[in-house]
Design a protein that fits this description.
alpha+beta, 2 domains, 5-stranded antiparallel beta sheet, 4-stranded antiparallel beta sheet, 15 helices, 13 strands, 26% helix, binds delta-meso nitroheme
Length: 456
């Protein structure tokens, strides 16, 4: 196992900063003058947080889209060494089709990431509190208006709820792989009761991946190993329609006399997600949310095939069973686990918008998830999950179903809940999530970044 050079890896790859940096802003920029921009970038490079240094009250990380790298001097030949989805961009017709970005989620309707709102640079700012974040943002925005060769496309705020629940009300950030060689296994075990250790090359370029061969290393600016210690960052702004979700659960669980029950709604919600609101897996806790802290413990060390092969606990089409099928992808659990290890992502998203006070009411407030994930191979990891698992109507031998949370909607979308003596089905799932913007970025290692801005 090769040693990782933490001083060359951006800190965001190794940490979500969620413990001490609850406030975040994602600043999306377009380059208007490359030489001014390079000068500005050279000035902030020493402030980019790597895997060792951590300021106590803020962090700063950076990533670039393909048009951004081109604007900063990458030739067509250089660009051809990057992964194809990155070169093409998230909103091209082929990627739009495989990601399922149609209807309300079509790129033409995005607020950023398409045509005149295309983005070159992503600055990720995290801070210990709102005051600190606002101080940093005031500085950055003043800098931008003073003429540093960039224009602001969007400034997206995000926070982390103290209870780490996302807007539908479920605990998030549990299922997360550990990068081999980072020493984070113990931390993950004590946090969630389970740790899947994955080869570093799945998330950090230049290292062995689960096929024991590194993914292709992008070159550029006469640096054969420009991509070393970098990664691809996928950003999707996913708006969540909380009232649609909970009203759907309410209507679908109303009994023949018209009565509604919170327990029945919570159970259908848990079947859709694959976990109860507390985070407890439904494959283990089949009838009610244990909700006894910590619900995330040894129970979290579960697989599907061995104890839930018929889907009576966690349905075949539930969000977490689609996005991480564990041992249940093929008949052979060992082969399943080995295969699934080639399709993991590190999720680094955060919620945006105020939490709903009444989840059944349409209060008009925009809220959702700034979904961010990291991977070395966008096609084999993020896009594979979205296309072949979440959007696949026949995943797990289902018929005309897609992921009930994030799957592309077709006519009469169905969600099946396997059960004994019969399975039940809910029909006409509305759209719970809409894509509002997005782009594929490359997050370089620190040495590559210095070359990019002309410091070496
Ligand atoms: Fe998903 N949700 O809040 O309901 N997700 N997700 N996700 N997701 C997970 O394990 C959610 C999205 C994955 O290892 C949980 O952290 C919402 C996309 C993966 O068991 C919850 C949105 C993609 C896992 C949610 C959304 C994924 C996972 C359980 C959009 C990839 C880990 C808690 C608004 C294409 C699975 C946890 C595992 C878990 C929710 C999006 C992937 C609660 C609301 C776009 C790999």
């Amino acid at each position: 196992m090769a040693m990782l050079d933490f001083s060359d890896i951006q800190g965001f790859i190794l940490s979500s900063y969620s413990n001490n940096m609850p406030c975040a802003n994602y600043l999306l920029l377009k380059i208007t003058d490359a030489s001014l921009c390079r000068k500005w970038l050279a000035g902030i490079t020493s402030n980019i947080t790597n895997g060792i240094d951590r300021k106590s009250d803020y962090t700063l990380n950076i990533a670039f889209t393909a048009p951004g790298l081109k604007a900063l001097g990458f030739t067509d030949e250089d660009m051809s060494t990057f992964s194809l989805p990155f070169q093409e961009g998230m909103s091209t017709p082929i990627r739009q089709q495989l990601l399922g970005d149609s209807g309300n989620s079509a790129p033409e309707k995005w607020s950023w990431g398409y045509k005149e709102n295309e983005v070159d640079i992503l600055l990720l700012l995290f801070a210990s509190g709102e005051d600190e974040l606002s101080r940093l943002m005031t500085l950055r925005l003043a800098e931008i208006s003073s003429g540093i060769g960039v224009r602001k496309i969007e400034s997206l705020f995000a926070g982390r709820q103290p209870d780490a629940k996302e807007h539908f009300g479920f605990l998030d950030g549990i299922g997360q792989p550990v990068i081999e060689g980072t020493g984070l296994e113990e931390k993950q075990l004590s946090r969630t009761g389970h740790a899947t250790v994955i080869k570093a090359g799945e998330f950090i370029l230049g290292h062995d991946n689960e096929m024991l061969q590194p993914d292709p290393l992008p070159t550029g600016l006469q640096m054969q190993d420009f991509g070393l210690n970098g990664t691809y960052l996928v950003f999707r702004q996913l708006e969540q329609h909380v009232h649609e979700f909970w009203n759907y659960l309410l209507e679908k669980t109303r009994d023949s006399e018209g009565n509604v029950s919170q327990a029945a709604q919570d159970e259908l919600g848990a079947k859709i997600v694959g976990r109860w609101k507390s985070g407890a897996p439904i494959t283990i806790h089949r009838h009610a949310d244990p909700a006894i802290p910590p619900a995330i413990n040894q129970d979290n060390n579960f697989t599907f095939a061995a104890k839930d092969g018929s889907g009576f606990g966690c349905p075949f089409g539930a969000h977490i069973r689609r996005t991480n099928p564990r041992d249940s992808l093929f008949d052979d659990p060992e082969i399943s686990i080995r295969t699934v290890k080639r399709h993991h992502i590190i999720r680094r998203g955060r919620s945006y918008g105020d939490r709903s006070e009444n989840v059944y009411a349409d209060d008009g407030i925009k809220r959702g998830l700034h979904f961010i994930c990291l991977n070395s191979n966008i096609e084999r990891q993020f896009e594979f999950i979205q296309q072949n698992w979440a959007n696949n109507p026949s995943f797990n031998a289902l018929n005309n179903e897609t992921d009930p949370l994030i799957g592309q909607r077709n006519e009469n979308n169905i969600f099946s809940v396997q059960g004994c003596p019969v399975r039940t089905r809910v029909h006409d799932l509305p759209e719970f999530v809409t894509t509002k913007g997005g782009a594929y970025f490359f997050m370089p290692g620190i040495k590559a970044l210095m070359r990019l801005v002309g410091d070496v």
